[in-house]
């Protein structure tokens, strides 16, 4: 019986698996362009994606990276590099507004806070539609009437063919930007709802046959954090 079961399991595993060879003799090594004496690690390589085609490249996230040229005055927003195969890497530009920039009007006015946003913590590519998405799930915003920041998370969407050195044509997605839903009432108590939702902690663009333009993002709701702790 055990033998039969083992044979069956082996057959299933064999039909489901694909071979994949790594060329260990001729590796192409990309080193962290932000590496420097006395600096703490940028987590270069935390996320990675590959674009095949006539001009292939890989894109490498360094979610704790500093880039004072791209983001003056911002501490560790996260930096994403594009590296043509066997060439050197360059940093991609998304939304490079200075820290604490104001958006919205009146009661809805908020300032964004990109320190430690973890941009490049998660990313995905969809070759058929030519879309790329890069997220920073620790992106925060602050309203004047609140003393706390909301950790809503941000994602940036762009096209594969786009020259990543300008932010032109990049869309900024803030799926949890809805001040009516930051908290919810449970037993007459306000508890966080979207407030610490961290959209974009992981991200996936489904293939076109599943959905035309939707991006699935994993959200961590604050009440779930409490349950986990
Ligand atoms: C980023 O810059 C800040 C301020 O200069 C520094 O304290 C921090 O160690 C740097 N982080 C990395 C990952 O280089
Ligand atoms: C992107 O465009 C700029 C200006 O048009 C150019 O200088 C740069 O070399 C281009 N970068 C890439 C990677 O194509």
Automatic annotation (TrEMBL):
Cellular component GO terms, alphabetical: external side of plasma membrane; integrin complex
Biological process per Gene Ontology, one example term: cell-matrix adhesion
Gene3D superfamilies, per the entry: Integrin alpha, N-terminal
Signal peptide from the UniProt entry: 1-19
GO terms of molecular function: integrin binding
Keywords of the record: Integrin, Signal
Taxonomic superkingdom: Eukaryota
Protein name per Swiss-Prot or TrEMBL: Integrin alpha-4
């Amino acid at each position: 019986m055990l033998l039969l079961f083992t044979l069956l399991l082996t057959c299933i595993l064999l039909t489901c698996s694909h071979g994949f060879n790594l060329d260990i003799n001729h590796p192409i090594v990309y080193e962290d362009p932000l590496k420097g004496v006395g600096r703490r690690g940028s987590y270069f390589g935390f996320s990675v994606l590959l674009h095949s085609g006539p001009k292939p490249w890989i894109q490498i996230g360094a979610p704790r990276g500093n880039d004072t040229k791209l983001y003056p005055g911002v501490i560790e927003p996260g930096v994403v590099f594009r590296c043509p195969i066997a060439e050197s890497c360059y940093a991609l530009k998304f939304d490079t507004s200075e820290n604490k920039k104001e958006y919205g009007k009146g009661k809805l006015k908020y300032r964004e806070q990109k320190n430690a946003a973890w941009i490049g913590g998660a990313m995905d590519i969809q070759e058929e539609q030519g879309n790329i998405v890069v997220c920073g799930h620790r992106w925060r915003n602050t309203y004047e009437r609140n003393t706390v920041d909301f950790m809503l998370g941000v994602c940036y969407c762009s096209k594969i063919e786009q020259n990543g050195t300008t932010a032109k044509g990049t869309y900024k997605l803030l799926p949890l930007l809805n001040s009516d839903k930051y908290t919810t009432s449970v037993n007459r108590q306000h508890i966080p709802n979207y407030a610490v939702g961290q959209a974009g902690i992981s991200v996936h663009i489904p293939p076109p046959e599943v959905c035309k333009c939707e991006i699935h993002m994993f959200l961590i709701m604050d009440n779930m954090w409490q349950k986990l702790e």
